[in-house]
Amino acid sequence: MLELRQVGAAYGSSRVLFGIDIAIAEGEVVALLGRNGMGKTTTVNAIMGLVPLTQGDIRFSGERISGLPPYKVARSGLALVPEGRQVFPNLSVEENLVATAANHGRAAAPWTLGSVYDLFPALTPLARRSAGLLSGGEQQMLAIGRALMTNPRLLILDEATEGLAPRIRREIWTALERIRGRGQSVLVIDKNIRMLGRIADRHYILEKGRIVWSGASDRLLSDDSLRTRFLGA
Amino acid sequence: MHLLFVEQILNGLQLGIILFLMAAGLTLTFGIMNLVNLAHGSLFMLGAYLGVTFQLLTGSFVLGFGFAGVATFLIGLVMERLVIRHLYARSHLDQVMCTVGLVYVFNEATRMVFGPEPLHAPVPALLSGTVELIPGAPYPAYRLAMIVAGLAIGGLLYGLIAKTRTGMLIRAGASNRVMTSVLGVNIGTIYAVVFGLGAALAGFAGFIAAPILTVYPGMGDNVLILALVVLVVGGMGSVKGAFVAALLVGVIDTIGRAYLKDVMGLMLSPVAANTVAPALASMLIYILMAVVLFFRPEGLVPAAGMRRPEAPSESSSDAPPGAGLLARWRVPALGLLGGGLLLLPLVAGLADSPFWVDVGLRVVIFAIAALSLDLILGRTGLVSFGHALYLGVGAYVVGILADKGIESGFVQWPLAMAVSAALAAALSVVALRTSGTFFIMITLAFAQMMFYGASSLYDYGGDDGMHLPVRSTFGGLVDLYDATQFYYLALALLVLLAGLNIRLARSRFGLVLRGIRVNESRMQAVGFSTFHYKLVACVVAAAVCGLAGAMLANAAEFVGPQFMDWTRSAELMIMVVAGGLATPFGPIVGALAYLGLEKYLSDLTIHWRLAFGVLLILLVFVGRGGLGALFAPAPGGEAVPAHKGSFRWARPFFRPRA
């Protein structure tokens, strides 16, 4: 469904990605791993059209999306839950969910306010509260809900559990498993290999702007050398 | 007295409503697109002209009202598409220059189409009577209807922003543009809609204000400046703040003009009250603005969740197109310029055209003024939009002293510089508390404040200004009535100041200013109290500009408030940018180019400002770096002057207080 071919990207004159190949199939959950500064977020930004490519191209359901402005990329069926959550602080929780809601892909059973509140019951009593006043975990749930409300064919999560209390993390992981259970395709970036091993089908490891390893969950979990070599854990 | 007071309050509210409709559009475009749109006043004017014309055509006030809104909305959309859209990512200086160009274009186009005479806007018959809100106090029905209509439009705007999905997206875009587009929203469309909406609000305001104001080309400019004051007082980007501040400014301005004289009469002698009160009344709202800024730099009701206004920093690495193109002609070109200036009186004498010397004198005086502006605009990166203020102050010092019988230039000129410097010190202490857009607006407002203050100096000609009774005398050393002597005196001063400018640029002080321009917080982090450096730069620039003002008064043999009109400030800015920022010769070239072009175009057509506005817009888009850049050394090769270290310079003059 999503296919990155030999993608390179740079910020000004400093190159970050050097020819990356990633493929995600319909209904698949794929994880992107790597230490800090290896290019994970840049990869996501390149997919969303936030960083121009220096080489290669990106296709989504066969259509070329590289070079499109971010809003067109999003409308083709991608949604991003960005690092740092980036909810709209001056909008209420409900407005955050409603403002950008869409169903461009004509999903048969689209996400609604009800189903998002059902996924994250903690948000229900906060509907009218300004999003800037939420806790980090609540903001994270809101950011995920907001992305789901655009009914994406591929959901991208960038460090969705970073900096959250363990109890909140568990809630987020549980929610992700439920989202996965609906057949949603997901590209997830995270540091928790154990949880990723459970939830993701396949993994890519990025190092210094290159894919250095890719494979299925059982191989990742069984190979300790991978973790020490590329993930520093 | 009581009934009259109520009436004045209503008048104040009505002014406030007009200002709110103007400020709402400005604050939205600023809060969401980070754009300083000085052409907003033109939309006010267009709303009045187009609406009234349609009203006269159809005989229906309602149709005129609708047409004013629809037409300005569409004009706004076209404007956004063609020009404004390309300014979002540009520096505030570019935005100011380009939108001033639009003001020229709109004002002149209106004058061409509708003629220079004011347009009479009829009050609809239904509202031509009076209403007795309070028994015994008839109030014009139309004015009351204006307040109601304004409140209704404001209410609709509130509903749109607070309750609709479009409003949510507008607010979302204001707080996080990138995230909004990542979620599939075409932010460009939102921008266009917001801009069109702001344009329509200005158009409505212009139309409903038309029957009580004079409809003439340029009518929007004064309203614009009041709206900018509202914006700063209320907090940029905040619609609620704009509402509160607009009513506050409207009421204070109206009440001040009506009652300040009586109140001051209680404390001062009638003569003194009669002199001071009008001046003070017209300055009142600017004083309010200064007070608000001093205690609450973010405004009364800061916008919630908006990102802090910050100027998109101009990346110093991209060289303007054509930079260094004529680099090898640099020395010959400068030689030609210098030789031309030096030999001008001789050539003029040979050509039997003595007025060339007067033109040359004007060029030299404006070159000095532009050079002083460049110290803050070009070298320090502070976009001051009120520099002509000191031109006026210098001129008034000379004028007032001459009127009092003190004619010696040895007294007048230094005093002109000293008064300018002192005023700059006081104003800059307030203005420098702000940065970016706020700084642009507050400098503009201060200049406007002094403009109105000078207009109220009835002993010195008021609005009309005064004839300078006698030119400055220099004890027989220089005779300013001799055009050639005056010219060479001015030229000598220009050469001296340009030399000092070059020296300054290489000094440690100049390097600190440059550091501030590139990255102010880094300068602070390495231990410089940038505020003090900026303050000194502003004071020095003001003193030099005051000198130019003193000379200008002598050259024109006239002193008037128009010396510090905001268009004059814009002209100085244009000269600096056109000539090339942060170069000693740029302002000179710019002054020559500007005044030369003005002379050439105005000989060609009376509508020269139209062509000029277009040129200005082009300057922003194609002529970055100005004429000076053409002659500058090839990009990248800027030599860093060797630091001549002396112990005195080894430590910062000003360090942040611990």
TrEMBL record, chain A:
Keywords: Amino-acid transport, ATP-binding, Nucleotide-binding, Transport. Signal peptide: none annotated. This is ABC transporter ATP-binding protein. Transmembrane segments: none annotated. It comes from Rhodoplanes tepidamans (Rhodoplanes cryptolactis). PANTHER family: ABC TRANSPORTER ATP-BINDING PROTEIN, HIGH-AFFINITY BRANCHED-CHAIN AMINO ACID TRANSPORT ATP-BINDING PROTEIN LIVF. The keyword Oxidoreductase does not apply. GO terms for molecular function: ATP binding. It comes from the Bacteria. Gene3D superfamilies: P-loop containing nucleotide triphosphate hydrolases. Belongs to the ABC transporter superfamily. Residues 2-233 form the ABC transporter domain.
